[in-house]
Amino acid sequence: xxxxxxxxxxxxxxxxxxxxxxCYPIPRHDTVYWxxxxxxxxxxFLISFYEKMQSxxxxxxxxxxxxxxxxxxxxxxxxxxxxxxxxxxFCASSGRDRVSYEQYFGPGTRxxxx
Amino acid sequence: AQTVTQSQPEMSVQEAExxxxxxxxxxxxxxxxxxxxxxPPSRQMILVIRQEAYKQQNATENRFSVNFQKAxxxxxxxxxxxxxxDAAMYxxxxxxSNNDYKLSFGAGTTVTVRA
Lengths: 114, 115
Hints:
The structure holds two protein chains of two kinds.
Chain A: E1 5-7, E2 10-13, E3 19-24, E4 31-37, E5 44-50, E6 53-57, E7 64-68, E8 74-78, E9 87-94, E10 104-105, E11 109-113
Chain B: E1 3-5, E2 10-14, E3 19-21, E4 24-26, E5 32-39, E6 46-52, E7 60-61, E8 64-69, E9 74-79, E10 88-96, E11 103-105, E12 109-114
Parallel strand pairs in B: 2-12
Antiparallel strand pairs in B: 1-4, 3-9, 5-6, 5-10, 7-8, 8-9, 10-11, 10-12
């Protein structure tokens, strides 16, 4: 079965640079979630999109922005990167019918800021 | 805001034995979902089991079962017949049944399986 695809899997950036993370949800899933997991921490919700509209917002820095496109893929844009942004970034997708409420996670993008 | 608490940072279990991971949560809602996710060294987040709050019957998935105590706001995970492949970080997570569908995670419990 198709899974959530995230690219790139690994990314190394320097401070003050920008990064773009991409997420391709499971086919027919219309909701995308972004989570950030710092070293030794639990995942923290950043932002979500439903039908290309932002549906919820968590502790996402103003330096970060995201959007969902017409094909339902999503991109997380991160600017003025800081050392503290080094983390594993997960994308998850879900459908909206009651049976499909589970969020299926992608493999994550490991961002290292040096 | 919902708070999920996992009070056991680490648990160790002998292969083929049983281990129980605890999770408590705080909510004012009556309908919600609870999950246990497994995160092995690969860091992939894998759904282990799900429980709907409106269901009184405890969920079971093969060797994994939960003890859901709604009044006590407790949601423990029991792993029976532990296998080496069960070694991982386990996260308890809460999700509202309203428009707020984000997952709120506990701090996680690292499970070590001894051969």
